[in-house]
Amino acid sequence: LITNPADGQFPPLTPAAQARREAMRLAPKTRGPADGPEDRPLSERCISYGAPRTGANYNSYVQILQSPQTTVLLQEMIHDARVVPMSSMPHLPSTVRQLHGDPRGRWDGDTLVVETTNYINGFQGSTPDVTLTERYTRVSDDFMNWEISVSDPATWTAPYTFMVRLKKTSGLIYEYACHEGNYALHGILS
């Protein structure tokens, strides 16, 4: 899926990122992996799979809704809705962090460009200071290219870009009937 760099590989991790990952691996574990709900990932707790969610499996539809001032990217999985202001307003101050970051949208010709900063947890192993630039380009009546450029100089030695081909469907987005504290979490913790 990686289109840049041309070799299709992730850029190397920075020495700081390697040190962070090694420190996490070696950190003493004071709790078990299921001592309480806070020990489980947000996806198991039915809170979020993260945004943008790039996995392709069941419930992987994305619906794009537009108005002149706002674009909404509705992810079927855990029904995350990313509300993207389509204006030149600046990003929030770096001290204000959000689970799905702080997106801003604009048009570049026929391509919707969404730039997101200010994550709480980062994206796919990055620091929270990552910047994602998504480009949604319709290439035919049934297909859209979704390019995601990832830039985090504290994690990778260079930015990288990957592309996912989205196919139009007439299928419906269904309610993702999952809520924090559902029976699955109870089973995991027991």
Keywords for this entry:
single chain, 190 residues, mainly beta
Describe the structure.
- It is globular, with a radius of gyration of 18 Å.
- It is mostly beta strands and 190 residues long.
- It starts with a strand and ends with a helix.
- Strand 3 (70-75) and strand 4 (81-85) form a beta hairpin.
- The mean pLDDT is 90.
- The protein has helices at residues 15-26, 183-189; strands at 2-4, 62-66, 70-75, 81-85, 102-108, 111-117, 131-138, 143-151, 160-167.
- It is built from two helices and nine strands; from the N terminus they run βαββββββββα.
- It has a six-stranded antiparallel β-sheet, with no helix packed on it.
User: Low-confidence stretches at least 5 residues in length (pLDDT < 50)?
Assistant: none
Mean pLDDT: 90
Strand arrangement in the largest pleated sheet = 1-9-8-7-6-5
Write the H/E string, N to C. EHEEEEEEEEH
Number of H- or I-type helical stretches: 2
What structural category arises from helix and sheet content? Answer: mainly beta
Computed over alpha carbons, the radius of gyration is 18 Å
Number of strands: 9
User: Considering DSSP H and I runs of 4 or more, what fraction of the residues is helical?
Assistant: 10-25%
Q: Termini, distance in Å?
A: 39 Å
Shape: globular
Strand content: 25-35%
Main sheet record: 6 strands, antiparallel
Write the layout of secondary structure elements.
Blueprint: E1 2-4, H1 15-26, E2 62-66, E3 70-75, E4 81-85, E5 102-108, E6 111-117, E7 131-138, E8 143-151, E9 160-167, H2 183-189
Antiparallel strand pairs: 1-9, 2-3, 3-4, 5-6, 6-7, 7-8, 8-9
